[in-house]
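Field reference: sequence -> structure
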Amino acid sequence: MSRAIRVVKIGGSLLDLPDLPERVLTWLSKQTAAYHVLVVGGGAWVDLVRQANATRPMDDVAAHWLCIELMNFTARLFHSWCPEIPLVENCDLSVLRSADCDATIFAPAAWLRQNEPALPGTRLTPDWETTSDAIAGRLAVALDAEEFVLMKSTHPEQHTLHDLKALAAGGYADPMLARLSSELPPTRWTNLRSSPAGEFTIR
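Structure field:
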């Protein structure tokens, strides 16, 4: 029998936490049994691309792929902090499905270029509306994950809770993730910056 898969998007805004590796490992240790696939956001490096684009606009597709490459960089960065968690950059998701470890850090660039466009369901758009939120969500769909977790730095306003469209409208998640809403597995929000982590179920 195959193991349950839980895809966890680690927000790039968390990368400035000095104890981020310890917080993530502690959180993982408290979860129900599952194989965790960790996707790391681009953080301040992607913000620099946004700032550069505001100063001198670039092609949306070129900006999109530049940000994707930065997600590979942050995946490697997080792996350097948690070397006990393997790093996978392979575009073939069977590598993840057959993994014999408890967690993996997934660098998504090769998969997004070579595999994601051919998958069934809602395709990701190569523009600013698609960020690491939607990329991790699409991966959760592709892996047929039992749960998808958005690990963030904030706790949204009360009226946006439990509704991805409201979260996207409020700037807490990207618009593309809201479009994937009907395809996503049960989804949970975790504010890892708070102690203890504040959590709620979105859907």
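Note: The first helix runs from residue 20 to 29.
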